[in-house]
Design brief:
Elements (H helix, E strand, L loop, with lengths): L3 H23 L3 H60 L6 H24 L5 H31 L9 H12 L2 H16 L4 H24 L4 H26 L12 H31 L2 H37 L3 H33 L7 H16 L1 H16 L3 H51 L11
Length: 475
C-alpha cells in the first residue's frame, strides 16, 4: 500500500486537473467544452501511443536492474566484511602494534566502501534509454500535431464549418507544445515506479497541477484567452512537473551512460513494439467513442467529455495498484520468487475489487449532485444523467482490468498483453460502431462497458489457465 496509494494519487492528479479544466471551460459554453473534449481525446491518443509502451517496459526493466544492482552492492559489502574478519584472524600471528594498525586500516576501508556504495548514484542503463526515447518521441508528437491538427480534427468528426473547429484547433495546437514535457515526465514516472518510489511523482504532479488550476482562471478569464488560456496553463504546469522529476532523478541516478553501448534500444524496441500494438488497439476504442460522440453534436460531446474524464480519473486509482503490483512482480520474477509473485497478484486483485466497489458507491452518490459544477446547460446535463449509471457501475470492472494489465506487465508477458488487446479491440470497435449508430449516446457507453469487460476477462484468462509466465501455478 505504501507504493500503491501514492502511485494512484499521482495518476489521478492529472485527470482531476483536467476535470477542473473541464469545469472552467464548461462555463464558457457547450461548444467550447465539446471542442476541448475532442482535442483532449486526440492528444491523449497520440501521447498514449507514443509513451505508454515505453513507460510500461521502463517500470519492469528498471525494477529488474535495480534488484540486480542492489544484490551486487550487498555482495560487495559482504566481501569487504569477510575481508575484515579474515584480517582480524591474523592478529594472533602479528605483533599488537601491527594488529592495531591493520585493524584500523581494514575498518577504514570497509567503512569507506559502504559509504561510497550508499552515496554513489546508481547506474541503470534503462533510465538513460527511457529518457532519451521519451524526449525524442515528445518532439515528434509536437511536430505531428502542429502540422496535422486540422485534418486530424476533421477525421474526429469536427467539420471545417463546425462551431467547434476553431476552439478545438486552438487548444490542440497549443497543448501539443507541451508534448515533450508530458512524455518525458511519464517516462520518468515509469523510472520512479520501477525504483518503488511513487511519492516523488505524486509530489511533482500535485505541485504542477496546482499551478495549472491557479493559472487556468487567470489566463482564461482575466487575460480573456478562453480555451487558449486553458492550454497555456496546462503546458506551463507540465514543464514544471518535468523539471522537478528530472532534478530528483539526477540526485539518485547517473543519467549519462558511460557509452552509447550501454543504451538498451534493442531491448526496449523489442518489447515496446508489442505494447505499441496493444496501446493503439486500446486507445482506438476510447478515441473512436469520442469521435462518435462528436458526430452527435456539441451537446452530447460536452456531456461525453465530462463523463469520460470522471470515468478515467476514478479508474486511474486502480492504475496505481497496477503499477505497484507491476514493480513488485518484476522484482519477484527477476529473483524467481514465485510465492511472492502469487501473493502479490492475489493481494492487488483483492484491493482492486474493493476499490472498484467503493468508487461505484461514491460516484453514485456524488456525481449527479456535482454535475452542475461543470455546466448549467440543460441539454448537457440530460446527457450526463444518462451516462452516470455506466460511469458508476463499471468501476469494479475497470479496476480489475487495469490491475490485470499491471500483473501481466510485471511478469513481462508483453506478447499476450498485445495480442489479447488487439482481439478485444476488434470486437469492441465493431460494438462501438454498431451500437452508436442504433442507440446514439447510450450505445456508446454500452460499447465501452463491453470493451472494459473483455479486457478484464482477457487478464483473468491468462492467470486462470496458468499459462505463459504463470505456468508455475500448475505445480
Amino acid at each position: 500500500m505504501g507504493i500503491a496509494v501514492p502511485g494512484a494519487l499521482a495518476l489521478m492528479a492529472d485527470p482531476v486537473a483536467s476535470l477542473v479544466d473541464t469545469a472552467f471551460i464548461g462555463h464558457i459554453g457547450p461548444v467550447e467544452l465539446g471542442a476541448v473534449g475532442v482535442s483532449i481525446a486526440v492528444f491523449n491518443q497520440v501521447s498514449r501511443i507514443a509513451i505508454f509502451p515505453l513507460v510500461s517496459v521502463t517500470t519492469s526493466f528498471v525494477a529488474e536492474e535495480d534488484a540486480m544492482s542492489n544484490g551486487r552492492d550487498k555482495d560487495k559489502i559482504n566481501q569487504e566484511n569477510k575481508r575484515a574478519v579474515s584480517d582480524s584472524e591474523m592478529e594472533e600471528l602479528i605483533s599488537p602494534e601491527e594488529a592495531s594498525a591493520t585493524t584500523s586500516k581494514s575498518s577504514f576501508e570497509t567503512d569507506s566502501c559502504e559509504v561510497s556504495i550508499e552515496q554513489k548514484r546508481k547506474n541503470i542503463p534503462s533510465v538513460s534509454t527511457a529518457l532519451l526515447l521519451g524526449g525524442v518521441l515528445g518532439l515528434l508528437e509536437t511536430l505531428l500535431l502542429v502540422l496535422s491538427a486540422k485534418p486530424i480534427l476533421g477525421y474526429m468528426g469536427v467539420t471545417p464549418d463546425s462551431a467547434m473547429m476553431k476552439p478545438a484547433l486552438q487548444y490542440l495546437v497549443l497543448r501539443s507544445l507541451g508534448a515533450p514535457a508530458v512524455l518525458l515526465s511519464l517516462a520518468m514516472q515509469g523510472v520512479f515506479r520501477g525504483l518503488k518510489d511513487t511519492k516523488t511523482p505524486l509530489y511533482a504532479t500535485v505541485a504542477g497541477d496546482a499551478i495549472n488550476i491557479v493559472l487556468d482562471p487567470i489566463f482564461m478569464f482575466v487575460f480573456q484567452y478562453g480555451v487558449r488560456g486553458a492550454a497555456i496553463a496546462h503546458v506551463i504546469s507540465q514543464y514544471f512537473i518535468a523539471s522537478i522529476l528530472l532534478w530528483r532523478l539526477w540526485l539518485h541516478i547517473d543519467l549519462l551512460p558511460p557509452s552509447l553501448n550501454h543504451l538498451q534500444f534493442g531491448r526496449f524496441l523489442k518489447n515496446g513494439f508489442l505494447l505499441l500494438a496493444r496501446v493503439i488497439a486500446a486507445t482506438c476504442c476510447v478515441t473512436l467513442s469520442a469521435s462518435m460522440a462528436a458526430r452527435l453534436g456539441s451537446t452530447p460531446m460536452a456531456a461525453f467529455q465530462i463523463c469520460l474524464q470522471t470515468w478515467l480519473a476514478c479508474s486511474l486509482l486502480a492504475d496505481g495498484l497496477a503499477f505497484a503490483g507491476q514493480a513488485i512482480l518484476a522484482s519477484a520474477f527477476a529473483r524467481k520468487d514465485y510465492p511472492k509473485a502469487t501473493a502479490t497478484a492475489s493481494r492487488v486483485l483483492q484491493l482492486a475489487l474493493v476499490l472498484g466497489l467503493l468508487l461505484s458507491v461514491l460516484l453514485g452518490i456524488g456525481l449527479r449532485m456535482g454535475s452542475r459544477l461543470f455546466t448549467s446547460d440543460q441539454g448537457v446535463l440530460h446527457h450526463i444523467y444518462i451516462g452516470i449509471p455506466f460511469v458508476c457501475l463499471t468501476q469494479p470492472i475497470n479496476a480489475l482490468a487495469f490491475v490485470f494489465d499491471g500483473i501481466n506487465y510485471g511478469a513481462s508477458d508483453f506478447g499476450y498483453a498485445a495480442y489479447s488487446m488487439v482481439l478485444v479491440a476488434i470486437v469492441s470497435i465493431i460494438c462501438i460502431l454498431t451500437l452508436a449508430s442504433y442507440s446514439g449516446f447510450t450505445g456508446i457507453w454500452v460499447a465501452l462497458v463491453i470493451y472494459m469487460s473483455l479486457r478484464m476477462f482477457a487478464g483473468f484468462w491468462r492467470i486462470g489457465t496458468a499459462r505463459g509466465p504463470w505456468a508455475f501455478l500448475r505445480s
